[in-house]
Amino acid sequence: MEIIIKPVVTEKMTEVSEKLNRFGFIVDKRANKIQIKDAVEQAYGVTVTSVNTAVYPGKSKSRYTKGGIIEGRTGSFKKAIVQLADGDTIDFYSNI
Question: Domains of the chain by range and CATH?
């Protein structure tokens, strides 16, 4: 099971990262906080002090097009906010 799916890189998350040294990740819905902590520490070589998680349910979406109404659902996902120790940081833009 791959625990970290992708980092959350948004304006809001970048601001939180700069101010509070917290970073967001989309993670596997079956992963617990201990597994998330270990995965982030191994992947980025940092020390994690705390992990907060939230499960976002999927939403119904509809769109009006020339061919009629298209209805569907967005997928549900789990987001983890990881607090790093002082002095540690993660640079998501280093390999661009």
Answer: 4-84 (3.30.70.330)
